[in-house]
Amino acid sequence: MEPISSDLLVIGGGIAGLLCAIKASHFGTVTVLTKAASDEANTAYAQGGIASVWSVDDSFESHVSDTLRAGDGLCSRMAVETIVRDGPDAVRELITLGTRFSRVDAGGDDEYDLGREGGHSHRRVLHAQDLTGREIMRALGEAAADCPNLRVLENHVAVNLLTERRRDGSRACWGAYALDKGTMAVRKVVARATLLATGGAGKVYLYTTNPDIASGDGVAMAYRAGAPIANMEFFQFHPTCLYHPAAKSFLISEALRGEGAILRLPDGTAFMKRYHQDAELAPRDVVARAIDSEMKRLGLDCVYLDISHRPAAYVRERFPNIYKRCLSYAYDLTTGPIPVVPAAHYMCGGVVTDLCGRTAIGRLYAAGETAMTGLHGANRLASNSLLEAAVMGRRSFTAMRQDLGHDITRPPDFPEWDPGSAARTEQRVLITHSWEEIRRLMWNYVGIVRSDRRLERAFRRIQLLQQEIHGYYWDHLLDSDLIELRNLVTVAELVVRCAMARKESRGLHYTIDHPEHDDDRWLRESVVRRDDVQPAPAAPA
Ligand code: FAD
Ligand code: SIN
Hints:
Elements: E1 4-11, H1 15-24, E2 30-33, H2 42-45, E3 50-51, H3 60-70, H4 77-96, E4 103-106, E5 109-112, E6 114-115, E7 125-126, H5 132-145, E8 150-153, E9 156-165, E10 171-180, E11 185-196, H6 217-224, E12 229-230, E13 235-242, H7 254-258, E14 262-264, H8 284-298, E15 303-306, H9 312-318, H10 320-328, E16 338-347, E17 350-352, E18 364-366, E19 371-372, H11 384-404, H12 428-445, H13 452-475, H14 480-501, H15 519-522, E20 527-528
Parallel strand pairs: 1-2, 1-11, 2-8, 11-18, 17-19
Antiparallel strand pairs: 3-7, 4-5, 6-7, 9-10, 10-11, 12-17, 12-20, 13-16, 14-15, 15-16
Helix pairs in contact: 1-5, 1-11, 3-4, 4-11, 6-14, 12-13, 12-14, 13-14
Succinic acid binds at residues 47-48, 253-255, 346, 382-383, 385.
């Protein structure tokens, strides 16, 4: 089969991938792969907005210091300063490309409405009502469609990177193998540069705000190719998702707390002041742990979020999507509290990159949620991920131009995908069962509160699952479920390995066996590579 060939391959069509692709298409040919429909990405689900210094009362220093505080000692100051300072330009580019952020009429001057969220000392979150991500995807999707050199291949799942081992022992990436879900053929996609922009991995947990595409494929592919992965123990749980069996962890934006919503127990008592001086606006890890602790203390299924003291017309206008969705489950935000629980939300760790998106593998770049730049440290500040993805999508493009602008090296001749003696998958139950087992054990043993014993138990089970899935993978013809399952178990293993290594509590990683910070030993990133896999610890007798 003819390979697909272009100057740049972008794996992922969310905010990071599309911003890079649109810019690059002015200089060469670009192929964007999306594993499902092109508008199905974490980006499309973003509610609260994008954080950026925008008002004259705000300052870069303040945004930097809020980000460092949330990151609990582990952010790279250089990354924070660079990304925060690039924020306004990235937002302006989104606006130029057609994004319509909400405005307020400020005495004749039409200005952008700036939202407030936990951990931010200023109003600095640009948003499009409570559907910010949909609006960004609309604008970027339309802009991409107008770029003649850019083609988006929907329903193409990248399977593995095409990597070459160079004479000096280093590696270079020349694209990827990708499964066309329409024909079920695995195609070779060759490119002079590749950007991983595959988003997060919320599906590794049983309850998550993330859509089904979020299975950590970029991290798993980069790891298999030998790139260092870091900080995977810092998985962020969003404190407030609607508690309803049919709601699939529907997110109730932090922006509600920014506009005064209060967390309450079933008897109406507000409890956040007992946990943090900033109460509902404390950093997200603090709020999620407080809710978890109250639920465990009182044996509750959920706590409640109450914004009914704000004028009903305001709530309906500011949060139209959340209002309507809650109403569809018979909860009226304007008249009383709604039930909420935490759910897995954001992967702070990922493929290690520099501040130009470069990974340790030549010609391979990563941006957005799949990358680890050092911005978030041990805990991400609200609305800093769209910011990071937008800034790093743009910066990756600049780096590629610098690195490869005059490059004339020809790609090696990679073989066609060889299915070998693989057979058609007959026992779907094996896939669904393993999938369910991984997600449940991650939720139960590697959740908001951890312990050495639970992590060891998770690790042993994951090693077993790894072996089973590995055998199954090579014996069966590929489909997207199998690709995702293999990636998901790898991501689960990386989360657990990083969590086991960190013998302290910091940011999003809280373990009852090491409840304090240990700055002497642990003020550093946890980095994992394919080549330093540890054997599973023996089961206790
Ligand atoms: P994504 O937008 O997730 O895009 C990933 C792309 O990769 C998709 O196109 C997908 O199809 C593709 N892909 C994945 N694997 C493969 C593969 N193997 N082959 C081919 N394609 C692949 N952040 C904020 O800053 N502010 C918010 O208000 C906010 N709200 C959020 C609300 C929700 C409910 C969720 C889930 C997240 C929210 N976030 C928010 C986080 C933020 O949306 C994401 O971190 C960000 O959008 C990630 O962008 P991205 O470009 O890295 O990836
Ligand atoms: C939200 O709207 O609460 C999500 C914001 C974020 O994840 O940054």
